[in-house]
Every structure is written in C-alpha cells, then in structure tokens.
Write a structure and sequence with these properties.
It contains 11 helices and 10 strands. By secondary structure, it is α/β, with parallel strands linked by helices. It has a 6-stranded parallel sheet, covered by helices on one side. The longest helix is centred in the first third of the chain and has 17 residues.
Length: about 300
C-alpha cells in the first residue's frame, strides 16, 4: 500500500525567512497557490537550514542552539500537524539544496509571502478555505483526558515572554481574568509561556497548568481544539491556532500595542487586518472574537467567552 504522491513542491529557506509562527501563514499561502493553479493542494516541503536570516533584533540575539531549537521545536512540529504536507526534508548542509526532484509546480517563500499581507489576496483569488492544521488523534485524545479532569474547562494562553515584555498581557488582567472565570464556575487550564515561569505567581491553587503544551505543539493545538473556549493573547501561537481546520472557539485580547511597530494599528491595517472588527480577517469564523480595546477588562473578555461556551 502506498501513500499519496504529488508533483507539488514547497521550499522554506531559513536564510531568507524567520523561525516564527509566520511559517504557518506561508504554508497556508502555498496551499492556496496550488488551489489557484488547479492542483490538489498537497505538497512536499523542503526546509533549508544550512544558513540563517539575521534581519530582526530578536534574530540578532539568537545563538546557533536557539536556531536549531526553533527548527526542531517550532518549524517541524508545525509540519507534523499539516495534513497537506505529505513529506518533508530538513537540510542542515548546503548540499541538501541539490535535488533531483522534477516538480511541475514549486512555491518558494521569498519576498515576505509568509505575511498576512500576502495571504489575504491569495485567499480572495483562490476562494479556497485557508484553514489547514489538525492535531493528531493521539494528541486530541490526550487533550480530552487532561480537560476532563475538571468540569466546565476554559483554556487560557497568555503571552508572558522574556523578549519584548511590553507585548505581554498585564499581570493584573490575567489575575482578574482567572478570578472572574472561577466566579463563573469554570475550571481554568493555563498553557504557560515557555520563556518564563512567572505566570504561576500568586494564582489560585485550583488553576491547572499544562506545562507540556508549552513545548509540545500538537498537544497545544489539540487542547484548543477540544476546549469549549480559549482566551488567548494575540501572538504567534494564536495566529497558528486560528488556522486550525476545526476552527476552535477563541477570544483574542490585546492585538495592538503602540510600543511595538508590528503591533500598531496602522501597521496591522496595512497588512490587511480590519482593525476593530470582531472577525478581523476574511476567513475568521464567528466563534473567534477579537477584542481590540487595549484597556479591555477581564469581565468583558469573560462575557465574550460566555457567548461561545
């Protein structure tokens, strides 16, 4: 018995492109390109990691170990939850760029096509659903077991990174959010940020921390797929989760931050976001609500979540 085959090929070159969740946008873009060409939207992926991009302040701080960690704990796990990818290779040596593949159609990530700005017009031209991620069945079963240990679960995933900490959700919002959810009789499950452990401080002992999901991307996805609703900060993981095939219910808080150039309302508008809209992208489903007020209260966020559970 043989699996599917394809002449569609995709290249993601880390000498030109970031080791970030923007990779998820590029995979959606590539899949839509094949749909536009009238091809079955499955493909073989080549990851080139023999050299590395150094364009952003964060990239300039990366060591080689940081980059290898990102490759194997972010990029390849995203591949593992992308059913459209029927095979992939990782080349850590420039000789890996030599290939005997003779593909009819190739999509390469070059010139910023990993951005939402590139994905939106491609989606409109394709008329094809861009949602493409799905957790493996084993991960979904594990997530279901975790969430079933408490009644009426709500999943919380809040940015508390050591990098650009001005983008983090205020501690006061987090504590008020958890208190309000518990007052409403919900069990709170928290996925901590993998870069810092400070989120645990002074939170109620009833809160369940799912530490494994901080480092296990398929499990993180599965938890969001299985949870009745998740409350998340606008971040790379949330952008990835929002492209899940199952379209999990999300309340997304604090999408803008005037202190960070890529989080300013004017930048997001140029990228194609409908800033201020509950569903700000043309493929955002009604059960994913974005709250744009930078001073949004925990009570209001919980009310939005109540409308979904």
């Amino acid at each position: 018995m043989t699996g599917p085959s394809t002449s569609n090929s995709v290249i993601y070159d880390l000498a030109k492109n970031p080791i970030t969740f923007d990779f998820a946008h590029f995979l959606a873009y590539a899949r839509l390109c094949f749909a536009i060409a009238g091809k079955d939207p499955i493909f073989y992926l080549s990851l080139f990691a023999d050299s590395w991009r150094n364009d952003t302040p964060r990239e300039l701080e990366y060591s080689l170990d940081d980059r290898i960690w990102g490759l194997h704990n972010l990029i390849t796990p995203i591949c593992s939850v992308t059913p459209a990818i029927i095979g992939y290779s990782v080349s850590l040596d420039e000789r890996g760029r030599l290939s005997d593949r003779t593909d009819e159609l190739m999509v390469e990530c070059d010139g910023g096509v990993y951005s939402i700005q590139a994905l939106i017009p491609t989606f409109r031209k394709a008329g094809f659903d861009p949602h493409l991620f799905a957790a493996p069945q084993v991960a979904r079963q594990y997530a279901e077991r975790i969430l079933s240990t408490r009644p009426d679960p709500v999943l919380v995933s809040i940015r508390q990174s050591s990098f650009q900490s001005t983008r983090n959700i205020p501690r006061s919002f987090l504590t008020a959010l958890i208190d309000r959810l518990m007052d409403l009789g919900r069990s709170v499950f928290v996925i901590p940020d993998q870069e810092t452990d400070s989120i645990r401080r002074d939170l109620p002992p009833e809160v369940v921390f799912v530490d494994e999901a901080s480092f296990n991307l398929p499990l993180r996805l599965a938890l969001h797929e299985q949870a009745p609703v998740s409350i998340c900060s606008a971040s790379g993981p949330t952008s990835f989760i929002s492209l899940a095939i199952s379209k999990p219910s999300l309340v997304v808080v604090h999408p803008t931050n005037p202190e960070v150039s890529v989080s300013r309302p004017e930048y997001l508008s140029r990228q194609g976001w409908e800033v201020g809209a509950d569903q700000p992208l043309p493929w955002t489903p009604e059960n994913q609500i974005w709250l744009w007020d930078p001073d949004v209260s925990a009570t209001f966020a919980c009310s939005a979540a109540q409308s979904l559970w």
